Amino acid sequence: MTEHSPAELRAIFTQGDATRIPVGHHLLHNTVIEVDGDRATARSKYTMTTHSRTETEGKARRVQGGGWCADELLRTDAGWWITRRTANSKWIDVVEVACAAPLPN
């Protein structure tokens, strides 16, 4: 697994991507948190759906997946902050789907 700094992640997720469609959901659920003073760990299941453009008119690529996140947290004067997150994929499904509406740019 590759680890990235916050600055590297910011660059990755803000760069232009001509295939990206601004439609998607990432849901965290069934979270279990264990607190130990000013530190905590959390484990959350996730499900996600995203879409991207394809070369085929009227089609989009749908990616759905699920897994769990393991987080380490730290309490500061500003509140709780996630200091480390490890995402673990359990399943993924990629299909081409019909897209009736024009895709936003």
Write the layout of secondary structure elements.
Elements: H1 6-14, E1 20-36, E2 39-53, E3 59-76, E4 79-98
Task: Describe the overall structure.
It is a single chain. The protein is mostly beta strands and 105 residues long. It contains one helix and four strands. It has one helix spanning 6-14, and strands at 20-36, 39-53, 59-76, 79-98. It has a four-stranded antiparallel β-sheet with strand order 1-2-3-4, with no helix packed on it. The longest helix is centred in the first third of the chain and has 9 residues, at 6-14.
Poorly predicted parts: none
- How far apart the termini lie comes to 32 Å
Class computed from helices, strands and strand pairing: mainly beta
The helix count comes to 1
- Average predicted local confidence, pLDDT: 87
The number of strands is 4
Summarize the structure.
With 105 residues, the protein is mainly beta.
List keywords for this structure.
105 residues, 4-stranded antiparallel β-sheet, mainly beta
